[in-house]
TrEMBL record:
Residues 1-54, 165-186 are annotated as: Disordered. It comes from Microdochium bolleyi. Required for mitochondrial cytochrome c oxidase (COX) assembly and respiration. Belongs to the CMC family. This is COX assembly mitochondrial protein.
Length: 186
């Protein structure tokens, strides 16, 4: 539900799209029309599941932290060895760190993080498939080693079919990527 709310237009006239916040207080996806005049609220309007949005948010946060690494390190060095005096002794470093993160945590950066997440989708799918196949092989070895009965062939077949199922994005099953960057779906 939260992922869907991030892509709905902002109807509150008292706030701009950049000021809209989700329930947990973090900035949501851009809701105002970008200056490009495309009429779309975002370059990536496809709704994702909550876990997929969380993955995009992790990529976004990592990118922002990487861009502000020097400011974060300066604040951490100041805070090291202190307890309740941190807000007083490290105020300047804290303000620099927060202003850097606020400057880089833009809707455009969120769109770039989302594009990066989509670009890495096939790599993650291959890794997940290899991990599942290895798990099945290890279970088979375990059963042979301990002399346990073999797994039900129907159950094994169902597990292998599940591994081969394509990822669902936006409610559609994405089959494969074509050469021009678009994807075919069922």
């Amino acid at each position: 539900m939260a992922a869907m709310a991030a892509h709905t237009p902002n109807t509150d006239t008292g706030r701009s799209g950049d000021e809209s916040r989700s329930r947990n207080g973090s900035a949501s996806a851009p809701t105002s029309t970008p200056p490009s005049g495309s009429g779309m609220p975002s370059r990536n309007p496809l709704p994702l599941s909550a876990s997929q949005e969380a993955s995009v948010r992790e990529v976004f946060n990592k990118r922002v932290r990487d861009q502000c690494a020097d400011e974060i390190k300066a604040f951490a060095d100041c805070a090291r060895g202190r307890t309740f005096t941190i807000p007083f002794a490290c105020r300047a470093m804290s303000n620099m760190m927060n202003s850097c993160m606020a400057a880089h945590a833009t809707p455009e950066e969120h769109d770039r993080a989302r594009e990066e997440w989509f670009a890495q989708r096939m790599v993650r799918a291959r890794e997940r498939e290899m991990k599942e196949k290895r798990k099945i092989e290890q279970e088979k070895f375990h059963r042979e080693w301990w002399g346990l009965p073999e797994q039900d062939p129907e159950k094994l077949k169902a597990q292998l079919e599940k591994i081969e199922q394509p990822e669902r994005i936006g409610g559609k099953v994405v089959r494969k990527r074509t050469g021009d960057g678009s994807s075919e779906s069922r």
